């Protein structure tokens, strides 16, 4: 185990022994690696940021600081302002702290802890107790033997059936049940059989994004295997040192970047629930991806970028999993009547002059209102600029990604599978007045192109 893993193990042990966890005040503490605890006897509050790869941050009210701090501990003073805190570099503090009365409007100090020895000395001073035994226990855990990505159905296999944990404590100390049968305990990126998970292994927990498999968020947390029991069809894995990613991410967020990583390519192709064993290079690559897509910096960057997006673009970014499920419903024709459907149709009919956008037909009984970006329940998608009015048979072709509008020309493009049909004869290359928002126009064309690429791959494989 690395020194910082030992630090985190020690902090968790001291917190569980001497402190009580304060419920998340803002509902967002997990996104910024913030946990707040209060000492059982003295009620001293401490805020913890455990998600960094090189240090652990302690947040303390300045009057509660230990008198003598180890030289290796970094110290940053934060002064209260009207809406948070600031320091000499005009940098703020973890914004969730202001939601806790223990910290609000009080001078704070952030301590950066990098070593096990410094952590033990600071914790001993704060608790006014002996942590030596816990330090020894943290150090005895041994080196991390291997690393695995566990792709699970979070609603079935995660501790407590919690697919989307709000805090690391939701999974800490719990049991993850990894499906397993036969001789193959895990797989490697080259599809060779891998080893069985053992105590001390580092785990990267990937909650399957599909609604049928728990509707998780993708790569959600890292942890260490504390104990492993083998059953006939599962491995029961005890978790410790659980750290949630500030910004969980899956294949939708990764996009084409996933193709740069053979392990992720295999996972995407397999789509099943499986343990994937990684070598050192693959583990380093996943850690870099976490820094790029799942770190606190990535979360803040995504939040800042979202502030400049249109409401429709922001909704697409935030509802990726829901959109993916809605697309699956389109493919299987699972479309239910829903509140607001008539309102959407009336709005679309007014927006497009009561005619089929692709054919010009004005027979209302033959026309349907189509969502371009599918309905998920997000009101941002219930706008005229995300609608088309289409003849019923054309609507079916559109939902099947057999026809689309080329954003560059505004003309219709059709799937090669429609070649020779009456649709190709009458519609291919026709210019249309679509009146779509840019985001909706791009979405439907990208969806069409992805479907054609998938169809081409299927034909090649056949």
Automatic annotation (TrEMBL):
State the Gene Ontology terms under molecular function: endonuclease activity
Q: Where is this region: Disordered?
A: 70-93
Q: Which residues form the HNH nuclease domain?
A: 356-406
Q: Where is the composition biased (Basic and acidic residues)?
A: 70-81
Which keywords appear in this protein's UniProt record, sorted alphabetically?
Answer: Endonuclease, Hydrolase, Nuclease
Which superkingdom heads the taxonomic lineage of this protein's source?
A: Bacteria
One Pfam assignment: HNH_2
**What InterPro entries does this protein map onto?**
HNH_nuc
Protein's name in the database: HNH endonuclease
């Amino acid at each position: 185990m690395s020194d910082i893993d030992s630090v985190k193990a020690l902090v968790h042990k001291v917190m569980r022994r001497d402190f009580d966890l304060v419920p998340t005040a803002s509902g967002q503490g997990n996104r910024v690696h913030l946990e707040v605890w209060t000492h059982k006897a003295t009620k001293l509050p401490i805020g913890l940021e455990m998600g960094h790869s090189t240090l652990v941050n302690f947040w303390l009210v300045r009057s509660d600081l230990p008198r003598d701090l180890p030289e290796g501990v970094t110290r940053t003073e934060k002064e209260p302002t009207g809406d948070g805190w600031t320091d000499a570099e005009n940098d703020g503090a973890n914004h969730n702290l202001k939601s806790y009365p223990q910290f609000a409007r009080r001078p704070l100090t952030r301590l950066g802890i990098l070593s096990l020895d410094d952590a033990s000395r600071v914790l001993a001073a704060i608790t006014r107790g002996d942590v030596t035994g816990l330090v020894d226990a943290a150090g005895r855990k041994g080196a991390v033997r291997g690393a695995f990505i566990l792709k699970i159905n979070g609603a079935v296999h995660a501790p407590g059936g919690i697919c989307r944990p709000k805090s690391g404590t939701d999974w800490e100390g719990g049991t993850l049940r990894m499906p397993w049968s036969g001789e193959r305990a895990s797989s490697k990126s080259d599809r060779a059989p891998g080893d069985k998970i053992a105590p001390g292994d580092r785990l990267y927990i990937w909650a399957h994004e599909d609604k049928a498999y728990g509707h998780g968020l993708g790569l959600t947390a890292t942890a260490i295997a504390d104990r492993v029991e083998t059953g006939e069809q599962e491995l029961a894995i005890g978790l410790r040192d659980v750290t949630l990613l500030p910004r969980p991410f899956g294949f939708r967020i990764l996009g084409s970047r996933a193709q740069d990583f053979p392990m992720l390519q295999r996972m995407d192709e397999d789509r099943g629930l499986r343990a994937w064993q990684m070598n050192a290079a693959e583990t380093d690559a996943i850690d870099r991806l976490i820094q790029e897509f799942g770190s606190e910096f990535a979360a803040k960057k995504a939040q800042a970028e979202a502030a400049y997006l249109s409401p429709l673009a922001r909704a697409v970014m935030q509802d990726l999993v829901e959109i993916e499920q809605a697309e699956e419903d389109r493919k299987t024709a699972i479309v239910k009547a829903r509140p607001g459907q008539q309102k959407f149709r009336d709005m679309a009919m007014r927006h497009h002059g009561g005619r089929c956008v692709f054919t010009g037909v004005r027979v209302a009984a033959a026309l349907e209102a189509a969502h371009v970006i599918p309905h998920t329940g997000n009101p941002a998608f219930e706008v005229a600029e995300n609608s088309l009015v289409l003849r019923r048979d054309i609507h079916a072709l559109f939902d099947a990604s057999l026809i689309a509008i080329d954003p560059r020309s505004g003309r219709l493009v059709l799937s090669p599978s429609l070649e020779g049909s009456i649709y190709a004869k009458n519609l291919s290359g026709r210019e249309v007045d679509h009146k779509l928002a840019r985001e909706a126009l791009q979405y439907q064309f990208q969806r069409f192109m992805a479907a054609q690429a998938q169809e081409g791959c299927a034909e090649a494989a056949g």
